[in-house]
Write a structure and sequence with these properties.
The chain has 98 residues and is mostly helical. Helices cover 71% and strands 0% of the residues. The protein has one domain (10-92).
Length: 98
């Protein structure tokens, strides 16, 4: 018995495009460390890129984009909590605003 959801999955070319986008984002993350940026700005750039990479990986490679919304909540809620904890810890140890 074939699954009806199989037809909703992206094509191989879509996965390759996502791979290229993730690779470029990773290179940008490495490049940010070599720029003479304020540490607070660098932190926010890394947070933004990690959020975008998380959305791409979870959405496409883990197929959550095509699954029920409750599965997305299981991944997004802990990610938001983790980001908030990281922000609080960075602010607590003065690494966020230096």
């Amino acid at each position: 018995m074939a699954h009806d959801t199989e037809e909703h999955h992206p094509a191989t070319s879509t996965y390759l495009k996502i791979f290229v986008i993730l690779s470029v984002m990773t290179l940008i993350e490495f490049g940010v460390f070599y720029l003479e940026l304020n540490s607070a700005l660098m932190t926010w750039i890394i947070f933004a890129l990690s959020l975008a990479k998380f959305v791409l990986v979870v959405g496409f490679y883990m197929h959550l984009k095509m699954d029920d919304w409750r599965f997305r909540v299981l991944f997004v809620a802990p990610f938001i909590i983790m980001i908030l904890i990281m922000i609080v810890l960075l602010a607590l140890f003065s690494n966020l605003t230096r």
